[in-house]
Write a structure and sequence with these properties.
alpha/beta, two-stranded parallel ribbon, 48% helix
Length: 223
């Protein structure tokens, strides 16, 4: 086993510049999803949670907007989700955008009031969370994989039971009805990205690790 002292973690970094939250939010309350439109990213779980929320009168105006890469094997799932929304009578309230340009991804984030990518597998990080936090959005993520660690580090959202539409809907409901709390969590996330997950910080940490490794590599070459 590798000694713990020899392991140095450098978190992913984000170019903070393009992510500017709107000065004044306009439009209906919206759940945002920016990731590959793939079932492993949990979009099916999010859609089922959304449909549960739409059963409540206070969420009559709620929308869901998802954008991300869609590969050949994903289209059958996208078709299934569209059919599910059509059958539930909410196809017009949900946007599923495939293979979008960067500007459209930013537009989805600006239009969102809360963000969730309830991945079903052991996600090792989730750069999409940094993007949401950089835009000042609170997030709701499943309590597994890297998400508990990231949310503990940022205090930027809520956790819920994995693969559970009802639990996801309940957590989303909390932030949709308590806008002050949602804004505070979003502000926490944005501040954490600026302070801990920027590109400059990542570059400095990579340089530090490389400098630590260079003497060892030189010593090994001489032996």
């Amino acid at each position: 086993a590798l000694e713990r002292a020899r392991v140095h973690v450098v978190p992913n970094g984000l170019d903070f510049g393009p992510y500017a939250p709107p000065a004044h939010f306009e439009g209906p309350p919206t759940i945002g999803f920016v990731a590959r439109l793939h079932r492993d990213k949990g979009l099916g779980t999010l859609i089922e949670a959304y449909l549960l929320l739409k059963q409540r009168p206070e969420h009559a105006a709620l929308r869901l907007v998802a954008a991300g890469a869609t590969l050949k094997g994903d289209w059958k799932h996208v078709a299934t989700w569209r059919a599910r929304l059509e059958a539930a009578g909410h196809a017009r309230d949900v946007e599923l955008h495939s293979n979008v340009a960067f500007e459209l991804k930013l537009d989805v984030l600006r239009r969102s009031t809360v963000f969730s990518v309830p991945a079903t597998y052991g996600e090792s990080f989730g750069l999409y969370l940094l993007e949401a936090w950089a835009m000042g959005l609170p997030v709701v993520q499943p309590r597994h994989a890297a998400f508990p660690e990231l949310l503990a580090a940022t205090e930027g959202g809520l956790l819920c039971a994995p693969d559970d539409p009802a639990a996801l809907a309940a957590a989303l409901h909390e932030l949709l009805v308590d806008r002050a709390r949602a804004r505070a969590l979003g502000a926490n996330g944005r501040r954490a990205v600026a302070e801990r997950f920027g590109l400059e910080r990542m570059a400095r940490d990579v340089e530090r690790v490389c400098r630590m490794a260079a003497p060892r590599a030189a010593s090994a070459a001489l032996t």
